[in-house]
Write a structure and sequence with these properties.
Blueprint lengths: L1 E3 L6 H14 L4 E5 L4 E5 L4 H10 L5 E2 L1
Antiparallel strand pairs: 1-3, 1-4, 2-3
Amino acid sequence: MLLKIENMTCGGCAKSVTKAIQSVDPNATVKPDPAARTVKVETAATIADIERVLEEAGYPAAAT
């Protein structure tokens, strides 16, 4: 899945996003791109679970 995260603007944000996603699925493959403000995720978790945990972490996401 590819998610747009408007307020992911730096490497620190990318680490926070990765940590949040991996809290739902520790085996998830997370490829953040702060410059494009997107993150590519390969996970067994549902998009709803990923969006919820990102919202809780302060990084609201929208599927693209």
